[in-house]
Amino acid sequence: SPVHLATFFGSVFDTMSKVAEKKNIRLNSQIPDELFMEADEDKLRQIFLNLLSNAVSYTGEGGSVKVTAAPDSNPDGSENVIFTVSDTGMGIPKKDLPRIFERFYRVDKARSRSSGGTGLGLSIVKHLVELHHGTISVESDLGIGTSFIIRLPLLQEESD
Ligand code: ATP
Ligand code: MG
Fold this sequence. Notes:
binds magnesium ion; 7 strands; binds adenosine-5'-triphosphate; 4 helices; histidine kinase
């Protein structure tokens, strides 16, 4: 069913606001008000809560986290929504980037100890994105920040 993305991210940000405030991290979004997409809202929520909780966990006091969404057309005429989730956090070493979507993979114990996660979040995100016939990629610079780029179809394929 159609999800109004500006409303959806308003509610996702409400969920994240307490933990972000505690670290004085600013949450920003740039979502066109007219943008709707067909998606399973619960799965969409799981995707973005995982990405945003990582962004907040791996960003220091006073940093910022930003979500954008924009429509994009493929050469074949089909349409996507391209999302980005960017932070001004510690970044991910180049050598670890290819592995972060693996189950239980965490970059190093020192950085991860305080956050106490299991290393499952991004593997779940990738699985959910692929269930929606989308793709996810990551760009990161150590000490500067990280951006996840998620491409999802605007419409769901008719099944049968
Ligand atoms: P879980 O999500 O299961 O609680 P986790 O956050 O450690 O644990 P993932 O979400 O799968 O696991 O992330 C894997 C690893 O990738 C993290 O341990 C962290 O080292 C790194 N990582 C993920 N997102 C970011 C980010 N935004 N900035 C810096 N490092 C990140
Ligand atoms: Mg995580």
